[in-house]
Amino acid sequence: MNTVATSQRDALTRFGHALSDVTRTQVLLRLRSGGAFPSELADAIGVSRQTLSNHLACLRGCGLVVAVPEGRRSRYELADKRIGHALDDLLGLVLAVDPDCCDDSATTGCC
Length: 111
Fold this sequence. Notes:
Blueprint: H1 3-19, H2 22-31, H3 38-45, H4 49-61, E1 65-70, E2 73-78, H5 81-97, H6 105-108
Antiparallel strand pairs: 1-2
Helix pairs in contact: 3-4
């Protein structure tokens, strides 16, 4: 396998790994609209701050989010705005293929 194909495969594998967990997926979906502090994300998603910290470390390791220092705290945001566009496109595709997969999207705005 050539180097380009390997790097593309690895990039998609990292993205798939990030989306394979519901908490990480929720973090990525929430960060589409802008940065947030870990405590805000933990409260909004309904997980402990330690759990969220572990998932943020994974997302940083995958290169999908970055920590932006703000005083003594760090705000998290998507590493590139195209990640948000990719999530929107992927979500649109999934809903086009299987519109019944997300019954709550119209009422909760989850998708």
